[in-house]
Hints:
alpha+beta; GMP Synthetase, Chain A, domain 3; 3 helices; about 25% strand; globular
Amino acid sequence: MEGNVKETDRLSEVLLTLVRYLVDRPEALSVNVVVHDSSVLYELRVAPEDVGRVIGRQGRVIRALRAVLRSVGARDGKRVELELLE
């Protein structure tokens, strides 16, 4: 279980690092991780004015972030979800 905790912490940091370059208010960023038996939910919170930047045109940016998280999770046999909150 400890390896999974380290992996979710590391993945949270990667997610924050990527999103930090997209937003105008990086100080408002936070990630909450909800771990279930076979899935992990990352709740990404951003400032209201940065939501559009994180979603991107036609949802391209958020889909790309979700794809990265899912591919890492699949390697570990976990279903990974990303939810954007403001």
